[in-house]
Amino acid sequence: MTGYAQARVEQDGWLLRVNVRSVNHRFLDLRVRVPEGFEALEPQVRQLVRDRVRRGHVEVALHVEALEGAAAHVNHEVAGAYLRAVQELRREFGLGPESDVLALLRLPGVVNAAGSSGGVSEEDLERLGEQVKECVETALVRLEEMRLTEGRSLCEEMRRLVAGIGEVTSQVADLAERSRPVYAQRLKTRLDELLNGGPLEPARLAQEAALLAERADVSEELARLRSHVEQFQRLIAEADEPGKKLDFLLQEMQREANTLLSKTPGLGEDGLAITDRGLHLKAEIEKLREQVQNVE
């Protein structure tokens, strides 16, 4: 499910902000961004997310800033390398002697208080780890609240769709019952064609009759569809983390709808009506599959 949350923690001269975004995905697709030099904190962030989120494309961005008064650590070696490169360019291209110290300080790796851990001790990183845990967990709780709100609306929509599938299944059952005389006429016509050719062995006659009956009877498909509808309703009401189970169940429902359609051609007006409702079933099942991708 989709969601967005943010949290911040201010402590020990550091400000931490965590942004979490979540969109629909069949599995957990986790992307984590941390400031340069703080990569050691990334595994902790990933584990905190995995402990709470099972499905979705989740993006987590960690921001670390030094508060006013925190020491700024200048990397003289990196700054010197930049200056030497500048001097070489001046000599090579005859550039003027102007220099901008502030521009130099903005170059990557020169100042590492707010964006790099080059000047942060291991003890500081450990303390930051505690702050990161607090900040990420707060953001995930807020994300979960937002996802739950969306989930309630999603559940109502799925209930509506699956109830419609159950209703259409009942309509198909009524139409199939009305079509029995057509099935009987098809069987009689086929048997007349076989008998006109001469004597027919009883075994062959029984085989042809059974084959026609199997091709015409949709009672098993309808029974399984009704069962799947009941299972679906039960899962969304009771199951913990039902997403994958619902997805599998909808695959089975789609298979039954396909079989139903393959058995209905040539049955007159009722056959056309069954085909129309079978296509409607497939469309509604596909809508449900799209919604189920949002469910953990």
Structure characterization notes:
The longest helix is centred in the middle third of the chain and has 57 residues, at 122-178. Residues 113-118 have low confidence and may be disordered. By secondary structure, the protein is an alpha+beta fold. It has helices at 42-50, 76-93, 101-106, 122-178, 180-196, 202-216, 219-238, 243-262, 268-292, and strands at 3-11, 14-23, 28-33, 56-66. The protein is built from 9 helices and 4 strands; from the N terminus they run βββαβαααααααα. It folds into 3 domains: 3-71 and 116-147, Ribosomal Protein S5, domain 2, CATH 3.30.230; 76-106, no CATH class; 150-292, Butyryl-CoA Dehydrogenase, subunit A, domain 3, CATH 1.20.140. Helix 5 runs antiparallel to helix 6. It has a 4-stranded mixed beta sheet, covered by helices on one side. The protein is 63% helix and 12% strand.
Question: What would you say about this model in short?
Answer:
Strand 1 (3-11) and strand 2 form a beta hairpin.
